[in-house]
Each structure stands twice: as C-alpha cells, then as structure tokens.
Amino acid sequence: MTVPVAIKQLYKTYTRRRWLGKNWEKPVLKDINLTLEENHVLGLVGESGCGKSTLCKVLLGIETPSSGQVLVCGKDTARISKSEFKKLRRVMQVVYQDPYSSLDPRMTVRQILSEPLDIHGLKKDRAERSAFLSELLASVGLSAAQLDRYPHEFSGGQRQRICIARALALDPKILVADEPVSALDVSVQAQILNLLKEIKTERRLSMLFVTHDFAVARFLCDDIAVMYQGRIVERAPAEELFENPQHPYTRALLSAVPSVRAPRREPPATRQEWPEREQWNCPFAGRCPYAQPSCEKAPFAFQEVAPRHSCSCGLLPFKK
Fold it and tell me: Which CA distances in Å does 120 have to 55, 137, 279?
C-alpha cells in the first residue's frame, strides 16, 4: 500500500548569488528521510531555525528541493506537471500558524471557503454549495449565520477554525499544520487541539504537525520526529519518546520543559561550548556534554533502539 507521504534523502540549500566571490549558500535540510502513514499524526519538534517550516514548504511545493524526493500518494512532486500538481492540492492542504494574516480581510467567510471550490470547479450549484458551506462551518464549531461576516469580526480561535474549515473544503487526505495553536491563548489551544483530534478520527486524515510544545505533541501525535540543524536526530512513538529519550538533544529539550510532577532530568546543553567540534559528523557534537573522540568520525546514521524507535547518536545504547 502506498503511504500518503514519503520523503527520501531530501536536501534543501538556499543560494544567494554574488557579483564577486563565491555564492552564499545556506544548507537548511540535510538528508531528511520521513514517512507519514495513513490515519497517522507525525509531530515535528525542534528549536527555532532548525528547518521545520522549510520542510513543510518543500512538502507543499512552495519551495523546490535541491535534491532528493518528495512522494505524495506515490507521485514525485518535482517531476509532475502543473495540472497534476493541481490535482494533488485536493489531497494535501495546510493550516498556517497565524490565523490573522492567513485570511484575506476583504473577503467574507463565504468567499474564503468558496475560493478552493471555485479553483477546482466543485459544488457549482448555488443551493448545494450553500448547504455544503453551512455543514462545513458546523463541523468546526461555527454556525451558518457567520458565513457573511469578515475575519475582523472573529476572535483568534474562531479565525483558526475558519482556516481549518478552508483546509477541509476539498476533503483532503493529508493536512500540514505548521504550529496552528502557537498564536492562541492556552484555553483556545485546547479547543483547537480537540477539534483537530476529532477531525483526524472522523476523516481518517494523515497529519504532519509542527510544534514547539512537547505537551501538545504528546496529546495529539502518534509519532514524534526531533529535528536539529536540518537533520532528523530521533523518531519514536510519542509515549516511547517521553519515557525513553535516547538522543542527548531530545533529553535536553525534555529537560527544559517545566513540570511540578516529573523528576528533574539532567540540565540541557544550551550553549556552543566546543566550537572545535563543529565539523564533526554529528550536528549536535558542539553542544553535547557526552561527546567522545569516537564521535568525530562516527557516521551519521539511524540505529533502532526499540520497536519503531530510531536514533542517530553514535554512543548508543545511550544509558547516561
């Protein structure tokens, strides 16, 4: 069976051309290998600037990969025609981080939800479309009476519900959620997360969920992938990752999460303490308090430490 999303050996480098001297290059994604299974939520966590949003953009076709493959329903997005990619848009939709800037303030909710239907030529009958839009809004907790209102008349949580409704208008199979609750109040976050969980179950969606919040990832995600400097350093089922983190970076992230119940973990490595290790194969060597001379030439490769739990640390089994 074809998985909804398969990313193989993906690299993305941004290049700025210069009149004199070498071109400036910034590698952002390095050898990414990920799969997103059907009816599955894959969480992507990591610090700011590690490449999470860039990975989402490459998956959505907003950015072009430098090398590697992005397969959506078995089709390589870099090799298909524009008309074929347009068909993939019905399969894959996105919910952005900021509900304030992702909605056109000059359009009513009816126009916002109708736009994807117009582009793909769906629900052309006026009565059928009106009934569909009313049902769509009801599915995200809003009423049909709000169809003719403008975005500025809604709260942040309601705007994000409209964004989710717009993403669901084409009945997609894959949903990319790029930090969809980070701009909302805590109480509203809980409502949106519960809504996403219900939608995922009812529609059997596959979801790539980007977040900084480990509590959010633990609540919603089936698997969690940890990203550092453009590389995936660990992937495991959500509960397994929390109970048995293997990579020192994952442990550092978890130790930074405040908790009144959990026992104190080892202090996180937060500074670039060993700059001479920057060229080592392990991207975390410059901040890792457990690095050994053997890490300098150890290949960056995943090892399975438990069923469905893989890690790239060269010191495995890591029992510190």
Answer: 26, 20, 49
Helix axes 186-203, 156-168, angle to 10 degrees: 20
Sequential pLDDT tens for the chain (320 residues):
678 999 999 999 998 887 777 888 889 999 999 999 999 999 999 988 899 999 999 999 999 999 999 999 989 988 888 889 988 889 999 999 888 899 999 999 999 999 999 999 999 999 999 999 999 999 999 999 999 999 999 999 999 999 999 999 999 999 999 999 887 888 888 999 999 999 999 999 999 999 988 889 999 999 999 999 999 999 999 999 999 998 989 988 888 777 656 555 555 555 557 777 878 888 888 888 888 888 888 788 888 888 889 998 877 665 44
Instruction: Enter the pTM of the model.
Output: 0.90
Please provide the DSSP assignment of the chain as one string.
---SEEEEEEEEEEEE--SSSSPEEEEEEEEEEEEE-TT-EEEEE--TTSSHHHHHHHHHTSS--SEEEEEETTEETTTS-HHHHHHHHTTEEEE-S-TTTSS-TTS-HHHHHHHHHHHHT---SHHHHHHHHHHHHHHTT--GGGTT--GGGS-HHHHHHHHHHHHHTT--SEEEEESTTTTS-HHHHHHHHHHHHHHHHHHT-EEEEE-S-HHHHHHH-SEEEEEETTEEEEEEEHHHHHHS--SHHHHHHHHTS--SSSPP-PPP--S---GGGTTSSSTTGGG-TT--GGGGT-----EEEETTEEE--TT-S---
